[in-house]
Amino acid sequence: QSGLTQPPSASGTPGQRVTISCSGGSSNIGTNNVNWYQQFPGTAPKLLIYNDNQRPLGVPDRFSGSNSGTSASLAIRGLQSEDEADYYCSTWDDSLNGWVFGGGTTLTVL
Amino acid sequence: EVQLVESGGVVVQPGGSLRLSCAGSGFTFDDYAFHWVRQAPGKGLEWISQISWDGGSTYYADSVKGRFTISRDNSKNSLYLQMNSLRPEDTALYYCAKDKSGDGYLYFDHWGQGTLVTVSS
Question: pLDDT band for position A26 (50/70/90)?
Fold first, then answer.
């Protein structure tokens, strides 16, 4: 099952803006909405962004998402130490008839 | 409050079978599709299966197709994953996740805490 491509790591200092990319293809990101999940060590993933750029209730507006062509990105502005976590993109793949995830990006706040 | 509680994870020998369960509460269970997602130790998330609100539509990842079967019992607010012909590479924390829709094509809006399956001799 081919997945989406994310950088394995990202980092920034408090207050900075960080972006995490998610690359796919015409059968997944190019056709369907992208969702993002946040996972802290030892805990279950949590929905962070849905339908490319929508935030669930309770998610700070520091987090935003975008989708362009066959790539998507997650942006975090005003980085805070509590944002240190793993971030995963995901979408439906029309060719595979299944969901695909990116490999995950570990965000470090320096 | 939405709650999803997985159970059934144990240590099992290669070639063995296991059934995982996921009990849902705090919402109308039969309105929604569900997924199983796993995470091998130190690795990323891997979607493995989904089932529609009525059980009429199911999908599987290639890695488990023909070996795993997803099912649900709406009268018991429960989701299941029957796992056969288990391999060491199936070792993972298995999460159940609720979809926002009834057919399973939107997003995973709630997750359980996971149940650990270890395949080892």
Answer: very high
Taking chain B, what is the end-to-end CA distance rounded to the nearest angstrom?
40
Do the Cβ atoms of A51 and B105 come within 8 Å? no
Smallest CA–CA distance from A91 into chain B, residue: B107
Stretches in chain B below the pLDDT threshold 70: none
Two tokens, residue A21: 């990319």
pLDDT over 70 percentage in chain B: 100
The pLDDT value recorded for residue A3 is 84
Q: What share of chain A is helix, strand, coil (3-state, %, to 5)?
A: 5, 50, 50
Beta bridge partners of A66: A73
Report whether pLDDT(A4) > 70: yes
Distance from CA of A103 to the nearest CA of B (A): 6
> For residue A73, what are its two tokens?
């990105």
CB atoms within 10 A of CB B2: 13
What residues contact residue A1 under an 8 Å CB cut-off, 6+ apart? A96, A98, A100, B46, B47, B61, B62, B63
Residue A45 and residue B85: Cα distance in Å, rounded? 28
pLDDT at A1 over 80: no
Identify the residue whose tokens are 């057919």: B103
Could you tell me if A77 lies within 8 Å of chain B, comparing CB atoms? Answer: no
Q: How many beta-carbon pairs below 8 A join chains A and B? A: 61
